[in-house]
Amino acid sequence: MKLNIIKITAALVFGASSIAIPNVSFATSNNLTAEPSTSFLQINANKSVIEGNAKAQLLHISQGKLSKVLSPNQKVLDVHVMNNPAKVVILTAGSHNLIEKHVYNEDGVEISKFGYKITVPDHGKVEWIAPAKGVNERVMVQEGDLFTLYTSSGNPVLKYNAQQKDSTYEYVNIVDWDFSTYPYIAIKYFGQRTMAEDYFIRIVNLYSKTSITVPGLNINKQLRIDKQGQLNIWNSYTYEEVTPANVAHPDPTQMQTFHALYSMDTGKAVTEHQLLFKQAPVQTASGWNTQVVGDTVFVQDLSTGLWSLYPTGKSDAIASEQTGLENNPTFVGYNPQSNAAYFLETVNSSIAPTIKKVYLK
Q: Do residues 332 and 343 lie in contact, with contact meaning Cβ atoms separated by under 8 Å?
C-alpha cells in the first residue's frame, strides 16, 4: 500500500530545552516524550491537547506546531476533552494547595475557573468526573491506597481502600487508575516478587466492593476508560534474549493481544486486537509498540517497522502493514475524513522533531 508522507517541522524540542513559539511565555522547560505517561487528547481533526510531565499544551496538528500552554503557571493534575461544544477541562494545583478547575474553548481561551475546597494529595492522583445521569460533577482523589470521591463543594461521598494483600508478592503498589462514572473504577497494580515484577489491572465495583482481575499477561500495560464507559487496555513489549522462567513474558510463537476493550460490568473483552510478533536474532530489536489516541489504536512491529491502525471498538484494521516510519514514533491522531494519520517523530536527537502527516491509500 503506497503512502504519501508530508513532513511538517514542529516547533518542539525534547529534553531540557524550551519550546520557542511567538507570544507564549514558558516559565519552565517542556519535556515531551514518547513515553506512555504522555497523552494526546483529540479536540477535533486539527487540534489536540498534549498532557504530560504536569503540563498541558495545545497542539495544532495540521500546522505542526504548539500554539499555547494551558494553565502555564500551575501544575496540571488532570485533563479532559468534552464535546458539544468542544472544550478542555483541566484540574490544577492552585493557591493554598487546593484543586482548581479551568475550562478552555478549543482555541485555548479560558472561559471559566472554579476552586474546590479539596487538597491536592502528596502521593497520588486526581481526576475530574463529568456530570452524568443527573449527577453533578465529582472529583476523585487517590492518596496512597485510599480513594475518596468528593462533590464540587468538597464534601466526601465515598471512600474506598484499594490495598491488596497477596502472599505472592513482597509488596503491591497502585501505579495508575481511571474512573468515569459510578460505580466502576479500574486500578493498575505493580507487584514485586522474587526476581520478578508483575502488573495487573482490577475493575472494582465501588458499590459492592467486589473486584474482577482483567485477564492477560502480567507485563506492563496502559489503561483508559473511553466515553462509552468501556475500558481500553494496551501494552508494548521488547523481546529479550534471555528471560528468567518466573518472569511474565509473551511467547513469540503465539499471537499477542496488544489491545483490548473490556466491559466494566463483566470484565470480559468486547474487542481484542492480536498479531504475531516474531523474535528477531540477537542485537536486533523485536517486539511491538502500541499507542491509543482517541478511538484509534496504533501498533508497530519493532523488527520489521511495519505498522497498523485499528478502531478501538472494531476488529477490522483501518490500515495494515504500513511502511514509512522510524521505530517508536509517537502517534498523534487519525483523521477519518481525510484518511490521514499524524505522528511526532524524532530521527536524530540533535534535530527538532517533525510531525508526519500520512495519507493512507
A: yes
